[in-house]
């Protein structure tokens, strides 16, 4: 986690953008158990442990954003697909799109829990400074 935060901090992005990215990363990491619970219901025939690390984390970020309603779901899915196209395999965008569309429908129907809260076994938020 510290390596990713260092990458964000050292990027050429504006300080506000880098801070927002760091906050999103920390929050998605903190709430990953809630995201994983939802993802497990929709990644048919693929346990999360079988997914490529990149795909799993793209999905976690997107689900976290959907649960916290940070942007319209279609925008979140579109951004997740861009990440998959750039950083994952050629098959990943199609898979990620299918899973996230199912998650979107679940959240829209109200079946998903309210915005994520850390579970009892969730680690404390890492102490990362920008």
In brief, what are we looking at here?
The chain has 130 residues and is mainly α.
Care to describe what's here?
- By secondary structure, the chain is an all-alpha fold.
- The protein is built from six helices and no strands.
- The two termini are 13 Å apart.
- The model is unreliable at 114-130 (pLDDT under 50).
- The longest helix is centred in the last third of the chain and has 18 residues, at 92-109.
- It has two domains: 1-30, no CATH class; 32-116, NusB-like (N-utilizing Substance Protein B Homolog, Chain A, Orthogonal Bundle), CATH 1.10.940.
- α2 crosses α4 (53-68) and α4 (53-68) runs parallel beside α6.
- It has helices at 2-9, 15-30, 32-42, 53-68, 73-87, 92-109.
């Amino acid at each position: 986690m510290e390596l990713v935060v260092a990458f964000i901090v050292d990027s050429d992005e504006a300080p506000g953008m880098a801070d927002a990215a760091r906050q999103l990363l920390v929050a998605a990491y903190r709430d990953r158990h809630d995201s994983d619970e939802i993802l497990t219901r929709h990644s048919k025939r693929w346990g999360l442990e079988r997914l490529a690390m990149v795909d799993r984390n793209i999905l976690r970020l997107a689900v976290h954003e959907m649960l916290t309603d940070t942007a319209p779901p279609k925008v979140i899915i579109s951004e997740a697909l861009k990440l998959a196209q750039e950083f994952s395999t050629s098959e990943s965008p199609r898979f990620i799109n299918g899973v996230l569309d199912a998650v979107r429908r679940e959240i829209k129907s109200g079946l998903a829990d309210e915005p994520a809260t850390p579970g009892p076994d969730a680690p404390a938020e890492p102490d990362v400074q920008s």
